[in-house]
């Protein structure tokens, strides 16, 4: 799998340049997380929307919002942990 393919699977291919160029030191190790996430999740209906919300939040609130692309895996794990510890109540049918 190539990076472009991983980003297409995740529905975030329009962010490819920003993801690749997000590290001011030129390091590219953070790109591995996108391969891992794409392989683990496959195509989803929610990841791209979640990702875009995180990027929008970082742009508004973070001192260095471009670093959000290097920390997506940490934010995703944090999101899952929060959902597990605070599950959304299911409506009774």
3D structure, described in words:
It is a single chain. This protein has 93 residues and is an all-alpha fold. The chain has 5 helices and no strands. The chain starts with a helix and ends in an 8-residue tail after the last helix. 15% of the residues are buried.
Number of strands: 0
Name the helix and strand elements from N-terminus to C-terminus, one letter apiece: HHHHH
Largest sheet report: none
User: What number is the mean pLDDT?
Assistant: 87
Overall 3D form:
globular
Helix content: 55-70%
Tell me the strand percentage band.
Answer: under 5%
Q: Tell me the number of helical segments per DSSP (H or I, 4 or more residues long).
A: 5
Low-confidence segments: none
Measured distance between first and last alpha carbons: 42 Å
| Helix-strand makeup class | mainly alpha
Structural Rg: 14 Å
Short structural description:
This protein has 93 residues and is mainly alpha-helical. It is built from 5 helices and no strands.
Helices and strands in order, then pairings?
Layout: H1 3-10, H2 16-20, H3 32-41, H4 47-61, H5 72-85
Key features of this structure:
about 90 residues, mainly alpha, 5 helices
């Amino acid at each position: 799998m190539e990076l472009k393919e991983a980003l297409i699977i995740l529905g975030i291919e329009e962010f490819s340049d920003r993801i690749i160029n997000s590290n001011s030191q030129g390091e590219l190790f953070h790109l591995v997380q996108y391969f891992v996430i794409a392989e683990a999740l496959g195509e989803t209906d929610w990841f791209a929307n979640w990702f875009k919300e995180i990027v929008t939040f970082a742009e508004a609130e973070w001192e260095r919002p471009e670093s959000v692309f290097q920390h997506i895996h940490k934010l995703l794990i944090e999101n899952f942990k929060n959902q597990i510890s605070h599950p959304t109540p299911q409506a009774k049918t």
